[in-house]
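Shift notes (night). Ran Beta-phosphoglucomutase while the centrifuge was going.
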Amino acid sequence: MWVLGLPDDITVALFDLDGVLTDTASVHRIAWTAAFDDFLTERAGGDIGGRTDELRPFTDQDYFDYVDGRPRMDGVRTFLASRGLTVDEATASAVADGKNTAFLASLERDGVTAYPGSVRYLHAARDAGLHIAVVTSSRNGEQVLEAAGLSEFVERRVDGNTIVAEQLAGKPAPDSYLRGAELMGVAPAAAAVFEDAISGVEAGVAGRFGYVVGIDRVGGGQSDAMTTAGASIVVTDLDELLAGD
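Came back to this:
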């Protein structure tokens, strides 16, 4: 018998945050677009119409392919490498800092919304005795959880600050999720990973976790891409997993 849409030997849920529990993935995407477009425009000498191909505007697909789910500096490096652009560390840090400034301004201005389906799932998970941790590449994980009113559900948190402090490899490497399982006192096989990013699904698969749930919030080919990456199941909202309980 499966509980919460998970195999019955799963005792721990490891949730990504942005795009899984809270509607902040879109805020990150907008902030990244502003930061990269500022950089690309400056690199082009301010001539928007005369941009070469490598300096073309940052797109949503760029976000999903090169940035989504990755630690901030990894996202900068991966995207720039995709365009064949080389910058020094100070420039890369300036792009990352510009993104974070835009994100925090949006957070302060608009607040954070938790997905209702995710909140229902968290309540059901806690009531069923499933232990809950958050594993996010964001260095603003604590602030987002507090702003969304979700801190009460979370027993442990691995975030971007943990990744830097403990020198963990970022997603798609499994290190942050493995650290989450370790903090929860279980082997990866006893934990389920919940992810909205392809890089996060890949991390769950690479870590040999017991179940990997992909959450498709964007449509298009995302669901197929998650399945190809190895997701055990793909849903559009977490409360879909409660339908069979």
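The chain has a mean pLDDT of 91. DSSP finds ten helices and six strands in the chain.
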